[in-house]
Specification:
Pfam family, one: BatD
CATH architecture of the largest domain: Sandwich
Keywords: Membrane, Signal, Transmembrane, Transmembrane helix
Strand content: 35-45%
Number of strands: 30
Organism: Pseudotamlana haliotis
Helix content: 25-40%
Oligomer: single chain
Structural class: alpha+beta
Protein name: Protein BatD
Length: 592
């Protein structure tokens, strides 16, 4: 019996040894090695044992449009266990050429394993087979992004609108929309119109029924003449596309597809404003305006103040021109004007008013005219220049000293009407000759304690002033440090705004996004224009920040970008706020 027991134990040990002797595999597999620039590449990293600290390649020549997706399979066949874990990425090539996908790494049982690099050839765009059963083809035919431009031949500084509409076939579902390339609108003054409350509508595209969403609106004022390009808007969409398969209940099986679409580059031709009839005082105002000059009072005393308001109201490029200056007599003291803008921007352009308010203080008594003031603009309705002029305003200073010119005139009058001086023998009668003065004890300030203190205090303050000045000079010269300190202050400021805005989705995520961006400015020394996700990841990796922390930080930025399209409750906002604080703290601790 003991012999049989020993045999059984020996068999178990041998089986375990065979199982543990199974070769460990960690490999990279690609869906194809040659593809067109308009196609997608799937990359799988497979392993037959579980591991930790998976680090993917940088995919520098590709855009990650999907993933990482993680799947695990665990099965027993004839008593033999089979395990497989896979990380999947979906990539879009950035340009043509032959590129190498570098190594991925993972730690399994304390050892680091790496995949073999693979070369991928990217060719020119290829014809995608028109297979109605291919989910990628169905997605390409059923999803469109269109940029509608109100006017392709505007005048300089004339408002045009760009409306981006996303058309999706009723049979396709959209789970996720990510803006991967935003137009910068070079050579335009631009204003993005809020589309948060836009709802999905039904409409037609190429004569077929579609659902569409107004994704973005922009108002543009061209600042140069000639042909100007409007850069394309590019979106990455996670879609659910119907297939020809059915489930056990007869329902259509949906396939998940990632697709990148673009509105395409648009060109407009900007006309110069006509030279014929252009007024000499024209400052670039284009639109339809009213002009008004008002004084808060026209009668006052010297050294009192009045307000002179010069305002333009109407529709046009209100923020892009200057109001005319006022010229006043030298006897009226004039302060620099306070500029006030009450302008809102809609799809039809800027509307509202701008005002320059001058504070005027008269110094002398008299009447002072404020001459007529003129304002010129180009009227888009009549295609002609127009001039508006104010009425002359008379300021009456009732009480106060006479001006120098008035005194000179009075002196001439008194010289003509001289009278004989009458002699008076009592000239000094008002002087008192009898007094009761008493002696006053004199006290001297010289050589007192207060005297010596006041004498030595400036001498002692000189070294302190030199030290303070040197420190200030060093601080002013530290441009990078000043930027970091300023960005850190902004991080605290916007995190505070985000905390106060909990429950207000748009305000909360705008403040949180600003806090994250300013933190990156301070920590990574980069500007907002350079903040691509790939660069952020590379810089954080270079500072030896953990992959999990980097992923959390990127997911927070993506959450801020997509918040307006996703219903989010206050509990999620609180979680994101706490996650932002914890992630920033971890990066501070880990970054080197």
């Amino acid at each position: 019996m003991q012999f049989i027991k020993n045999i059984f134990i020996l068999l178990i040990v041998c089986s375990a040894s065979i199982a543990s002797g199974q070769d460990l595999e960690f490999v990279m597999k690609t869906s194809k090695q040659k593809l067109g620039i308009n196609e997608r590449l799937r990359v799988d990293f497979e392993m037959n044992r579980d591991g930790d600290h998976f680090t993917p390649p940088d995919f520098s020549n590709f855009t990650v449009v999907g993933g990482p997706n993680q799947s695990v399979s665990n099965s027993w066949i004839n008593g033999k266990r089979t395990y497989k874990k896979t990380y999947s990425y979906f990539l879009a090539p950035k340009k043509r050429g032959t590129f190498t996908i570098s190594q991925a790494s993972i730690v399994i049982e304390g050892n680091t394993y790496k995949t073999t690099p693979k070369k991928i050839q990217v060719t020119a765009a290829v014809d995608i087979p028109k297979d109605p059963n291919d989910p990628s083809y169905v997605a390409s035919e059923g999803v469109h992004l269109v940029a509608e431009i109100s006017n392709t031949n505007p005048y300089l500084n004339e408002a045009i609108t760009v409306v981006y509409k996303l058309y999706i076939s009723p049979t396709i579902g959209a789970d996720h929309i990510n803006e991967i390339d935003s137009p910068r609108y070079n050579d335009f003054w631009s204003q993005i119109i809020n589309t948060q409350n836009e709802k999905v509508q039904n409409g037609k595209y190429n004569g077929e029924d579609y659902r569409f969403l107004v994704y973005k609106k922009a108002v543009l004022y061209p600042q140069k003449t000639g042909k100007l390009d409007i850069e394309p808007l590019s979106l990455d969409l996670a879609l659910r596309v119907p297939t020809n398969r059915r489930d056990i209940f007869g329902g259509v099986v949906m396939s998940r597809v990632n697709r990148t679409i673009s509105a395409g580059r648009k060109t407009i031709n900007v006309k110069a404003l006509p030279e014929a009839g252009k007024p000499l005082d024209f400052t670039g105002a284009v639109g339809t305006f009213d002009f008004d000059v008002q004084a808060s009072k026209t009668a006052l005393d010297a050294t009192e103040s009045l307000q002179l308001n010069i305002s333009v109201e109407g529709t046009g490029n209100l923020k892009l021109f200057k109001l005319p200056k006022v010229t006043l007599p030298s006897s009226l003291e004039v302060y620099e004007p306070e500029h006030d803008e009450k302008v809102r921007t809609t799809l039809s352009g800027m509307k509202g008013s701008i005002t320059d308010s001058y504070t005027i203080v008269p110094q002398y008594k008299g009447k002072y005219p404020i001459p007529s003031i003129s304002f010129s603009y180009f009227d888009l309705k009549t295609k002609q220049y127009k001039r508006l002029s104010s009425e002359e305003i008379l300021i009456d200073v009732l009480n106060g000293p006479a001006s120098h010119s008035a005194n000179a005139e009075n002196n001439r009058d008194s010289a003509v009407n001289k009278q004989e001086v009458v002699s008076n023998t009592d000239h000094f009668a008002f002087i008192k000759t009898q007094t009761d003065f008493s002696t006053i004890k004199q006290s001297y300030f010289f050589k007192t304690n207060l005297f010596w203190s006041l004498l030595l205090l400036p001498l002692l303050a000189i070294p302190l002033a030199i030290v303070i000045r040197n420190k200030k000079a060093d601080r002013d010269a530290d441009v990078s440090g000043n930027k970091i300190r300023k960005a850190n202050k902004l991080v605290k400021k916007y995190l505070g705004h985000a905390k106060k805005s909990l429950g207000q989705k748009e305000a909360f995520y705008i403040a949180l996004e600003k806090a994250l961006h300013n933190y990156l400015k301070a920590k990574l020394h980069i500007e907002t224009s350079d903040m691509s996700k790939e660069k952020i990841i590379d810089l954080l990796k270079g500072k030896q920040v953990d992959e999990v922390v980097i992923t959390d930080f990127i997911s927070l930025i993506e959450r801020c970008e997509l918040a307006r399209y996703t219903p989010i409750d206050i509990a999620t906002m609180q979680e994101d706020f706490e996650k932002a604080g914890a992630t920033i703290s971890l990066i501070d601790k880990q970054a080197r």
